[in-house]
Amino acid sequence: MQGILSKAQIDSFNIPVYSTTRKEMEDLVEINGCFTIEDMAPLIHMASDAEKCSKHLRAGMEGVFKEHFGSEIMDELFDRLTRKIEESLILSEGFLTPNELFVILQRKVGN
Q1: Cα–Cα distance between 23 and 13 in angstroms, integer?
Q2: CB count in 10 Å sphere of residue 78
Q3: How many helices (H) and strands (E) does the chain have?
Q4: Residue 110 gets which letter from DSSP?
Q5: Every domain of the chain and the residues it spans
Q6: Has UniProt tagged this entry with the keyword Metal-binding (predicted)?
C-alpha cells in the first residue's frame, strides 16, 4: 500500500494458496481408499458489490494481515481494497472461475 507499508513488508508477505482440480481430488480419494465420492461440484462465490466482497475477505484474512502488517492499517487497507474492487472487473459476470470443490464422501464399509 503506497505510503503506508514498506517494500520489505510487502515483499516478505506470502499466502500460499492451492486449489485442487477435480481429477486431483478423485485421485486423492482413491489413494486414501477409505471413501467413495458420492457427489462433487464446483463452488462459485459471487459477491453482489465491492463492499460485500471486501468485508468477506476481511472476515477471513484480517488476522493474517494484522499479524504481518499490524492492526493500525486494517481500516485503510480494506477501504482501499473496496475502491480497487469497484474500479476492477472482478464483479463482472463471467470473470470468476470456480476454485473450490464441494465434495460428498461416503465411508467404505469396513474402513
Answers
A1: 31
A2: 18
A3: 4, 2
A4: T
A5: 1-41+104-111, 46-95
A6: yes
Distance CA 110, CA 32 (A): 14
Q: How many residues does the chain have?
A: 111
What is the CB neighbour count within 10 angstroms for residue 70? 11
Cell triple for residue 41?
461440484
Mapped onto helix, strand or coil, the DSSP state of residue 43 is: strand
Dist. CA 20–CA 53, nearest whole Å: 23
Radius of gyration in angstroms for the set of CA atoms belonging to the chain, rounded to a whole number: 19
What pLDDT, in 10s, does the model give residues 33-44?
999 999 999 887
Q: Cell digits for 26?
A: 478423485
**The cell 513488508 sits on which residue?**
9
Distance CA 7, CA 1 (A): 9
The Cα–Cα gap between 58 and 55 comes to 5
